[in-house]
Amino acid sequence: MNAYEQLTAIRDQLELNGASEDSIELVEKFLHRAESERESQTSVPQVMMLRHLLRQREALDNYAIYNDLQELMEGVESRRVSDDEVRPAYEDTERRPRPHSYYKALKEKDEKKK
User: Fold this and answer.
1) Which residue, among 69, 47, 71, 72, has the nearest Cα to 60 in the 3D structure?
2) Nearest to residue 54, comparing CAs of 13, 23, 85, 28?
3) Among 33, 41, 49, 91, which residue's Cβ finds the most Cβ atoms within 10 Å?
4) pTM above 0.70, yes or no
């Protein structure tokens, strides 16, 4: 999703969470700025957009905006952690260290080259 689509998704989530009008106005301001990126093929992660919004002066000066955006950030991070915890069934997690003979042969091979 490009920046415009991410900002639209953030605005929708804020509205669903019952965020303050100031928070929605901030996102609307950035939506207006990102209008030119509407058809862009550049993908922007939602976490990156939220971090960018959290660093804005309006968010830093207004606790309501900051808290609303931080609430969204926590939801995104919790989803990301749960995705990382899921491992495919076919993944081999067993550790198989190489035997001493492998390293001995590798050393001998390296010495022959010199």
Assistant:
1) 69
2) 23
3) 49
4) no
